[in-house]
């Protein structure tokens, strides 16, 4: 594994040096953003399927890095299911409670430091203390902790060592660090011209007047990209409701009742929900996302 890591690092440095030499030799400027397809910008996004794919290969994390980071955080919680997963759940709730992207960007450096600090702490707990120096009190007390409690708190133990696998924690730290860079890059004018902006739509707008603020032409035509847009904007709402219904019916417990209530509430009003003011629509989805984070935290606490 260590040889593989060293090989990947050497491969990366070789590519970086070759690109630097090629740009210096041909008098080329270093692009303001690390991209694969040169010349593909936000203006090419709506020109067809191939330019759209190239654009998202270049700027997928720039546009959806926050969502990817949150998905990885939920994956870490589901994989660990211990005390530190509960801490990750609380951090996730604290980040999502900010709601707006700009507000999340202000607290994101603290979230990255929190993730890095937890990794360092867990690494020290895995190393532990040499047996000749001391004995852990949770094994020698009058009422010692059980092995399951020690495992849940991720405490160092001579009888049962903590699991030293940090692959998911490392992915979370990697994604959150990259997203920190995105929050800084999206404030630069050169990056906005190249990749577009990540400014949120105003919450006071009426959905019926959205066509006045859409910078592209009507996509109800006959190209394949327009068909993809029609599917996403017309049927994705119902696809999400199907996932909520499956989540609520897969297991029978008190937490699944909330998903069923949310699903039937959205199905009761149907597509008319999307014609409500933006503030009202986002408030509903904020409640659903908040409830989901609460369920994740409670399941981890009660596991």
From TrEMBL:
The keyword Membrane applies. It holds the Pfam family Piezo_TM25-28. GO terms for molecular function: mechanosensitive monoatomic ion channel activity. The chain crosses the membrane at residues 55-77, 111-138, 227-247, 254-274, 280-302. Residues 207-303 form the Piezo TM25-28 domain. GO terms for cellular component: membrane. Keywords: Membrane, Transmembrane, Transmembrane helix. This is Piezo TM25-28 domain-containing protein.
């Amino acid at each position: 594994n260590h040889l593989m890591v060293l090989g990947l690092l050497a491969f990366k440095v070789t590519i970086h040096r070759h690109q630097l030499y090629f740009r210096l030799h041909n008098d080329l400027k270093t692009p303001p953003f690390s991209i694969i397809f040169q010349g593909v910008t936000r203006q090419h996004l709506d020109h067809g399927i191939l330019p759209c794919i190239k654009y998202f290969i270049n700027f997928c994390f720039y546009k959806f890095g926050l969502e990817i980071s949150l998905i990885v955080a939920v994956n870490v919680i589901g994989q660990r299911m211990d005390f530190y997963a509960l801490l990750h759940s609380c951090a996730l709730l604290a980040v999502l409670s900010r709601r707006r992207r700009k507000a999340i960007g202000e607290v994101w450096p603290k979230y990255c430091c929190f993730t890095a600090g937890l990794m360092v702490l867990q690494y020290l707990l895995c190393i532990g203390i040499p047996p000749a120096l001391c004995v852990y009190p949770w094994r020698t007390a009058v009422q010692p902790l059980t092995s399951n409690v020690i495992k849940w708190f991720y405490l160092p133990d001579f009888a049962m060592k903590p699991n030293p696998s940090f692959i998911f924690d490392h992915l979370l730290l990697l994604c959150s660090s990259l997203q920190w860079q995105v929050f800084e890059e999206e404030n630069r004018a050169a990056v906005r011209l190249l990749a577009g902006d990540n400014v949120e739509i105003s919450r006071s707008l009426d959905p019926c007047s959205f066509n006045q603020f859409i910078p592209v032409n009507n996509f109800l035509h006959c190209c394949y990209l327009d068909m993809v847009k029609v599917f996403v904007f017309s049927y994705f709402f119902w696809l999400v409701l199907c996932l909520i219904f499956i989540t609520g019916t897969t297991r029978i417990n008190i937490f699944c009742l909330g998903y069923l209530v949310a699903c039937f509430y959205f199905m009761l009003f149907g597509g008319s929900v999307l014609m409500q003011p933006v503030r009202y629509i986002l408030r509903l989805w904020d409640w659903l996302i908040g409830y989901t984070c609460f369920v994740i935290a409670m399941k981890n606490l009660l596991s």
